Amino acid sequence: MKAHKVNEKQEIERLTLSTIKSAKGPTILLGSGNYFDYTDPDGSEITIEDVAYGLGYEGRFAGQCYSRRLKRRAFYSSAQHSVLMSYAVEPELGLPALMHEAGEAVCGDATGPLKSLTPDYKAIEKNCERGILLKFGIEMKRKLDIKIADLRMFVTERRDLTMWTGEPWSVDEEGIQPYEFDVIPWTPDESAIAFLDRYEELTGSGRRSSLLTRLCVEAGIAA
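The chain above was modelled as a monomer; its predicted structure follows.
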């Protein structure tokens, strides 16, 4: 019986490994058809659509969101988080803010408490983020300002999208204040398209799309 259990475990591991395609290292197949290699992000091809849809369909807070505005559980994406933050910062930080979660497009969004227990995962995600930012020629300027903006987004989201009842968290000891706009959840597709539109606004046309205009008005973000 014991030998049978060992063999069964080995077979499960073998079958699990069979789903991992390795080029130079462990890879995943992206929506663009490119393979992304976790051990060689610099040599991997990834499109802005891969980033946008990866973040648009990635839920924050492990999916445990409750919208106080909608009065129900709701999906809230990493793409929406990034778009809103890109409007919250000063203009020169807009693009770094939009792309600051780029690693999550291929690694997923593990919660902060879980990341604190898995330093290897965090290191892999950061390396992927670095490689993706390099691919798009983006320099993460003024990292401290980006981090503070990210924390302000966090406490804003806690206010609008969780069942928080006011008990103090560690972040409250830093005096971090939420933003004044409302976080009203977007659909995954809205999030991805808004991310692409915001990227185009920051790197190309300089014009805000009709979708972004509507979403910003609903959130209370100035034009």
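Residues 24-219 form a domain with the Hypothetical protein af1432 fold (CATH 1.10.3210.10).
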